[in-house]
Each structure stands twice: as structure tokens, then as C-alpha cells.
Amino acid sequence: MDHNQDAHRQRILDCINDTNGTAGAFDVSTKGILHSAHWRFLGGKEMQGYGYILTQLGTLSVFCDDMFSRYKFEISTLILLRNRSKIQCQGTVRDMGCICDLIIG
Hints:
This protein is mainly alpha-helical. The protein is built from 6 helices and no strands. The protein is globular, with a radius of gyration of 16 Å.
């Protein structure tokens, strides 16, 4: 797979823009590149990563394999809390600081 997917990404953006932002898309090409590189959260930091991702604005993203792993209960609980808190794709973001050291450190 060619790692330069700029043309493909632009086609995705053009398609979304043609709908005036009423449609969304998943960049499967980038997902494929990340998957081929075995991109994952660092071992032992998975739930910190999901804790961050699932409590932020944006489209919910969970690796399918993780939903059937030992993290299934914790991920499901975070998704339930996300839904109860009405965290969605759009909204106002407040910068509360960085927790990068906790996730990648």
C-alpha cells in the first residue's frame, strides 16, 4: 500500500464537502496504513488511551479486536458514560491541559 494517500484523502474530503458537511466518512486507507504498521496504544496504556479518546468530542473509534479483549467491560463502560454525557462529534472544546505523558510515556 502506498503510504502517500493524499489524493484519496482529498476525494473523501471533497465527497463530504459536496454534502455541505451532512455526511461523514472513515479514512480506510489511513487505517490500513496504521494497521500494517501494527499501530496500537502502548502495552499497559490501552485504557488510558481509550479513556482519552472516548471522553473527547469526535467520532467514536474503538479497535474491533479490543471490543473482544480483556478490555471489553471497561470500553463498554466508557461508551455508556460517553452516551449518558451526550458527548458527540461536534461541540465546544475547552483546553484543560495535556495528559500526553500518561498515554505515551
